[in-house]
Task: structure prediction
Amino acid sequence: MFTEQTPILGRPTASVAQLAAFILARPHGVYTAHDIEAVIVPVYWQLCAEVGIDPTLAVAQMIHETGNLTSFWAARPQRNPAGIGVTGQKQTTPPPNREGWAFNGQSQQWEAGVSFATWEHDAVPAHVGRLLAYALPIGAENPVQLAAIERALRYRALPARIRGSAPILKQLGRAHNPTGQGWASPGVDYGAKIAAIAVRIVMGK
Result:
């Protein structure tokens, strides 16, 4: 059904109801059923369908990256759905420019990463468009896809050489990406983990 060889581009394989039910069946942080069923998941489904990404894969990546919306970066006010700009850089002193940083009250540290004002207008479009940029090389986009990519990369740039370097899940991991970079580092089994979540979503487990 899904493996690390699964293409990122594809038709929807799960409904909004299936995706939301999977998230709600597990701890999901500060987010309510309304947040998930009426905002986050429907926006993922709509935007993915518009640009040709299987929504199941984007939501599975979000679940993997955020611990099913329970992580510090997924919580408000960060609303970061997929580790965008989260480099692992941390410090105890406030950065001179706090843009691209957030203070983690649990660790009492400033952590690098992108925060988003809303899920529907910012976080989800940033995630979906960035995933599309990994899947499609420059020049292969249709107008709707190009607009989605340009919108996403305004939040955080992506080197041109990475464009189109990961048409399949496996190549999202740096270890398997032909550029030597990737969404996850080293990401040896990153694609396989996303695929495994996608299988469970579709199977309802």
